[in-house]
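Hi C.,

You asked whether I'd gotten around to modeling the 410-residue construct. I have! Everything is below, sequence then structure, no commentary in between.
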Amino acid sequence: MGVNTKIIMAIIKLRLLRVFRDRTNLVWLLLMPMIFSLIMGQLMGDWDSDGPSRKPRFMVYDLDGGPATDQLLAPMVDQENFLMVRADSVITEARARQLVEEGRITAALFIPADFSAAAEAGLQANLELFYNSERLSSQTVRTQLDETLLTVNTLTAANSLVSVPDSEGRIPPGHSAHLDKAVFQESWSNPRVQLQVQTLGRQEEVDFPLTRSAQHVGPSYTLFFMMMFLMMSSKDLVEERRNRTLSRLVISRASSLDLVLGFFLGGLILGLIQATVLLVLNMMPPFRVDYGDSLAGLVLVVLLFGGFCSAASVLLGSIARSGPQADGLGMTFTMVMASLGGLWWPLEIVPGFMQKLGHSLPSGQAISVFHDMIGRGYGVSEISGWLVGLGIWFLGALLLAVWRLRRLVA
């Protein structure tokens, strides 16, 4: 049996008219999401300007405290990507390694007690650094240390070529009577050959990719209110059941597939209208969210998440026995999905086991797509895993809705 297009279109039209005729629905459809985004954005602040407490810590365990140590650490005091902390106590190397592996610090440097004396005498000195090569802040620590140590080693080598003239005023071949440190620093700071480097595109890293709270709250509250509005509208289907409208439609040769498609497509159209308006508004001041360069990725995530929410609302409307029960179930479902799925706060800041749970939910997969597109510049190929997960949730909810509604009208 084919689908009855007239019945499907009639159900869609009825649902759209019912929503847009009630101005209260328009408030929750468009106005409240923007108000929540603005308020929560102000409360969270900008994540790239919250002060040094937000920076990953680079711990220095210094047993020397001499001038060579100060010279080594001076270029690392005011760094954008990490906060250097000279510890007032010493820990074991095993403990430092554990802290780095757990992500509690970005790197740990151990400076031995004889470092300054060895540097002054031109003797070998060993430093120990523990760092995570996958973190941007750790990479910066390693790069800065390598650069500083290269300077120190070059200066030490130059000093080894300085010899005091003997009693007859002779200087060994290849040596000099003195080292002009000012000339050395000038040559070091302004080399004759320079390499110009420019980083193109966004920075891909495993650290939290977003820098402004608007980049999270804009998409997250769009997803949250889309889900909430559709879940709460499941009571419309309950009312249709209680008023015997579904029975009359079945008598008029409407199949269960016609009913599901009518209610599903009506909800999907509502969700797409809401998401489109909210996402466009979030591109404007004061939010100014840049969704990245993948329009296809943006369209797919909105379609799949909207499809899941609409199918889930049909399933919920076929399970609930009354309007208040549908409201309660819809609100509970929305709150659980939002809190566990990272729509209220970024999943990147919660413990690992909570991240795994959140990423298994459609809400967590959808907001992760936005984070990857906004913060890392990912396209469809990079976010395909999240999209496949959303597709599975969508198809599962739709098949369950068809099965449940078919049993009701059988």
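If it helps when you're writing up: Residues 5-47+212-409 form one domain.

Thanks,
B.
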